[in-house]
Amino acid sequence: MSPIFYYVAGGIVLVFFGWQWKLVRDTNKTPMQKYTVEQVIGDVEIRNYAPFVKAKVTEKGSYQEISYRSFQRLAGYIFGKNESEQQIAMTTPVGMHYETADAQQAEMYFVMPEMPAGSALPTPKDSLVSLIPCDAFRAAALRFGGVAGSETFKDKEAELKKSLRDLNIAFVDTAEWLRYNPPFQLFDRRNEVLFRIQ
Fold first, then answer.
1. pLDDT over 70 (residue 5)
2. Is there a contact between 34 and 93 (Cβ–Cβ < 8 Å)?
């Protein structure tokens, strides 16, 4: 093959890895939901979460349909589709949990950043986006990497359930699936399954 081919291919590879490195760096700088680690038992972290406000959407459909539609609605809200046309900082993680036993209705939520004293979050224009204040809570979390679809989350959910039962830790049997990275970031990904506990 021509040397030009190798130069072009090498350039494409360098651009790709440079882009991925920037994604990792930018994600690591994104504000994260506040919690403290109370205890680590094997792969399980016991955490205490601070009170927060979430923007949420509840929709019906498959995992892929809900993930896409709900994310677009929530992203629209923080990018200015609100009564003040105000942009709101992105935070991590993006959370999701099923509200029906047949896994046909789910809530997706963004954790809202803390607002300056005397200011409030703007009202969403999209009627399906709601702002919900949430109390502090304790939770057990299992962290894992890679690109995770619904089947991976279900497997990790079952793994965390078994660990909690083996440890005799009572939990609320509704798992939250947490994603910390944009879908096109391939390296250094962070995902978690979380159960609320007493």
1. no
2. no
